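User: Fold both of these, please.

Assistant: Here is the first one.
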Amino acid sequence: MIVIMKKIVAAICGFLPFLLLAEEFAKGVVFEDLNGNEVRDSGEKGIPGIGVSDGSNIVETDAKGNWRLPVAEDVIYFVLKPSGWMVPLSKDLLPRFHYVHKPKGSPKGTKHAGVAPTGPLPKSIDFPLRRQDEPGKFSVIFFGDPQPRNQTEIDYIAHDVVEGIVGTEAKFGVTLGDIMFDDLSLFGSFNKTVALIGIPWYNVIGNHDLNFEADEDRFSDETFERVYGPAYYSFDYGKVHFLVLDNVEWSRRDDGRRHYVGNFGPRQLAFVEQDLARVPEDRLVVLSMHIPLNITKDNQSLFRLIENRPYTISLSGHTHWQAHHFIDKHAGWKGKEPHHHIVNVTVSGSWWRGAKDHRGIPHSTMRDGAPNGHSVLTFDGHRATFDFQAAGKPADFQLRVHAPEEVAQAELADTYVYVNVFAGSIKSKVRMRVGPKSKWIELRQTPEKDPWYVAMQLLESRNKQVQAVNGATVSQHLWKGKLPAKLSSGQHLIEVATTDMYGREFKGTRIIRVK
């Protein structure tokens, strides 16, 4: 009897580790969803070598597609989409690549609902993937800060931006945060509007997408997580690796007030380090975030992770102006070449302010004098080409020429012509001539407030019927030069040509009158 008892105890002890593993680990399969029903059916095999993460760790599926990660009370498990595969999409074309595990649900007492209690962990969390063709050259649409306050402003987005890109050949889109302007109940209406474009749409979290009642950063994303999933993740498309990051850190100050700062934090940076370890050095890495890198506290920690890679580019929103930063040693960057960081044009421009056009939509020009709109990045191997698209304008509307309506001959030599090249950078060249037979004059890039915008803002501020745009900010893409000292009286045509960093030329004109 004693011998039998010893054998039973030994058997239990031997099986105990497997019981503990069942309680302490989440597990599942990444499989090929042949019929697209998002359920693993007979004959649908697991896919090996696919990354799965809990936001802290990344594991790869084994030969049969199995994965396993530690269990926590508040965790989102998600698959890292590889090239040539696609995750399921919601009715609103939002990628569904995650499982939220919050047994007790989100904390109560917030204005906007978080995640409902998910209950016990499923026996298997399976992620379906389906094959898709992904070309080496493709385009992606980027929205900065749509930021609607209400349904009226979602309608502005629909007519001002969305209608113009329905049926686009771009493969997917990304919103770079501030999807909303605090009212998170509008996520659904916004998503349905953007879905009409007809392509999958990824989302970055912004400071206006948070639950403001939260005291800790980890609880500030609850509504975003319910609608979109994890606040940071990665995926591959073609030969490009995309990292979507959360650099909006929320907390309560010592004085009791809640606030945010730009910060990635150690947990997310650990994810980035593991993620990039799986990405070949010859791949272009594209990082999307909300707050620009130059005002993110722990940007140096991110720099250390990407600066030795030969091909990187990043985008942000937040500031409501357009800029190209080339981050170099003066900003702590130690890479061989400067890092190109794009502060993206915003959909909402100046927060949907300004005089309304014939459609009843505010012009909402951004504070640097550039129009509201969106951008398109075209990827071809290691190369990424940026295109600025002004809302409601033709694609070649890339600059604005500003000069007085009338100039006295005696004042010609002291009169400036200003050119706002909306997507201009330190790598742009701008020149002008007055008259078809005159010589071209090279213009000088100047960090100033756009005088066209300053004058327009002043006029609007005097009109009580208009919600005027905000005051001007220094423009990073403004050029100026003086008029020729000798011009005859009468009308003259100013021609301007700009060449961008990719060697493409755009033109603009303005007529002035000399008296």
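And the second sequence with its predicted structure:
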Amino acid sequence: MPIHTANGFVGIDRRRKADKALNVAHDMRNIRITAGGSLEKRAKTKLLCSLTGEIEGLWCGSLGDITFLLASANGRLYKIDSSGNAREIGVIGGGACLFFEFCGRVYIMNSAYYGSYDGSTLTEIEGYIPLVAVGCLPNGEGTPYEEINMLTDKRRQRLSPDGKSILYKLAEEDIDEIVSVTVGGAVYNGNYSLNRQTSELSFEQAIPAGLDSLEITYKKQSTTRKNILNCKRAMLFGGNSDGRIFLYCNPEKPNCRFYSALADGVPSAEYFPVNCYTVIGSSPISCIVQQYDRQLIFTKNEAFYSYCELITDNSGRRISSFPVFSLNNGKGCLFETDGCVIANRPVTLCGDGLNMWESTGVENEKNALPFSQPINDLLATSLLQGESLHLADLQSESELFFIANGNAFVYNYGIGCWYIYDGFGGKGFKVYRDTLYFTNGSGIYCYSERGEANYVGIWQSNYIVDEGGNLDIVSLCSDIRVKGNIRLKFIFETANGAISEKGVELSEESEKYMRISLRPALKRALPFRLSIHIEGEGELTLHSLTVKTRKKERSRRIGLLQREAKA
């Protein structure tokens, strides 16, 4: 009696239409595979809270020992607690909002606002005021020190008064206004005037002599702030001790990578010098991720890498530089994303499906290795429906989520298999610890809890073939764990259209392990395929399947009688 058994399920593989093994799925929705190879009803997705207006940004993480969930909607910033209660923190203006953490603060950025939140206070950021020149003589000659900051119109200049001069020249021309003047660190209370054409400041009396004792803060209008505020994505990268924030996906400068610098020797997210940017290739940047000590930069069809290199500038100072080199001129990332890294291998979407990038500094087409071949036909169908694409890594479950137009194609990289979830329409997918958060309209949703979920889970095998020929299906046995209310339906379907359906309803208040035995009684069933439908709000884990078949003895007896009659 031929037996088909599945003791370890391996997920979807649609490259084969027929199989001898019962553990390979042709389709699998809202069911996951455990580390032990069992089928398990997936976790539920629940609405955590709703805000007024569409949610335009989301962040989750910890500041110190406190966990925060922050969201922007209706031009305001909200803090949401674990029970879903939202409290308004402050006004930040409308528009798509970027969040990132740096040096113990959360930074909030949209096209018209830049601020930070330390867990208690929301502060709007003007930007670090750079010290553009030091050791300057009254005639303006001195040593260049810090570059202009793209975030602010203001700059500082330090001069060394000679005790005689009343006229001091600034480093730039066409100054808009003087913001402040200090002498020896104290505010200068005397009178002075500015000649905007010559950029000279005239004092009513000579300033006492001193080394760098006169500091003038002035303002000169610029339009560079939008270079930073229009960026839609961010990532942290840098050397061993001075991390930098890298910003990209600015629609007006789509192939530019901007990065922060040290402000007075300290890492800062408020200082983006005018020359701290790189033009990457000739097409928009879609993703930047870190791999070991390197930064991988992707456009749609190319890949580059960068790293932190210490160089000596013209003043003899050691500074960080981030040179860029080509890695692959045929593959990149086809959509904008923050990116994911699995076992130190970045993941991107290429023309041949999802790829993992190996660690190498040599340009080679083998840098990117495709791993989504088992479901590429489903991916292609979903990608044709729109461009709502996201990546998220739920490390607690070893699950990579590739969300495409409401479907989550899940790669369990712990055991190397694929399955699919639905109900993931939305944006802003963020993972913190063991929870996946995302938004849809005005709602914030979370996916984390095992247990009750009222949806249909479907597992369907490939067509099963056997060298024994056309057999009858005698029985089905399955070992399961159940808790709560569950409805199970086993559907056998033959290639010629015959169908046998058997259902089981279970209701268990406490967790229970049991064996289900059914008799489909389906004649001439090969090739056949088996579908399992799971409904109800309870929990279910299916550990094994065994389908018994038997050869068609009756046909043999008929043949024997015919031979005897002829004799």
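The radius of gyration is 33 Å.
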